[in-house]
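Please check the following for our workbook:

***
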Amino acid sequence: MSVLSKFLLKNSRFFLFLFLQALALTFTFSKNIYHNSILENKIISFKGSIDSKISNFKYYFNLKHENDRLLKENNYYRNLFLGKSKKIKPEYIEILDSTKYKQSYHYTPADIVSNSINRVNNYLIINKGTSQDIKPEMGVITSTGVVGMIVNSTPNFSKVMSILNKNTKVNARLRSNKYYGTLLWDGEDSRIMKLSDIPKYVNINIGDTIETDGKSRIYPEGILIGRISSKTIDDESGNWDISVELFQDMGNIQKVYIVNNIDREEIKSLIDTIQ
């Protein structure tokens, strides 16, 4: 009898115990929502901590590119805030837009510590959580586009459902004429999303800008998304089948802003009474 066989036979009770323990844990977390939530939070915290160290290491070797990006971003937000009241605090920027869309938001800066773009349902991890009052259903954006929505938070990290996720739906519109539809991802190209529900009688052109329409309570109105790269008529629905090339390169994100609609809970409570 080989040494390995003797070892396995000698420790057979121990290995049986490990097998039964793993089986019990599998049943516990797969059937119990509460335990499953605890496990996911532990995974987010652990993965966020590890990925944060890796992200810091990569960031150190990418400072020149990051400085150029920050200069462009500062210019973008300088223009964005023109004519608007703002309160700047260490943890967030509060924008009170009284001139254009009449919206009130908190913008909390955060770093990306983990990101995927090659799966059917992609997610990101960011380094802000419940300790900074970050909650599910808050939007995440950059200076060049929409990134996703918070779906879960631990004290120091949050899980973001990327726009490159087949469960994502973004209310979007054409900037030129304000016709709106639903922005979806088909799981194919990480640079392209699909805009549906635009009637075929609406005049659209290649290169037209697509932006958020502000009706979802998640994203402010007028946030850039992308430009129309192709268009055809869907024979089944009779609507436009529009491909939108994203402004934001989803594979190259380091800094984001978490968007908290100050009036979100009040609006949500009214919508709940209707439903």
User: Anything to note?
Assistant: The two ends are 70 Å apart (CA to CA). The chain has two domains: 53-163+256-274, 170-246. Confidence is low (pLDDT under 50) at residues 94-99.
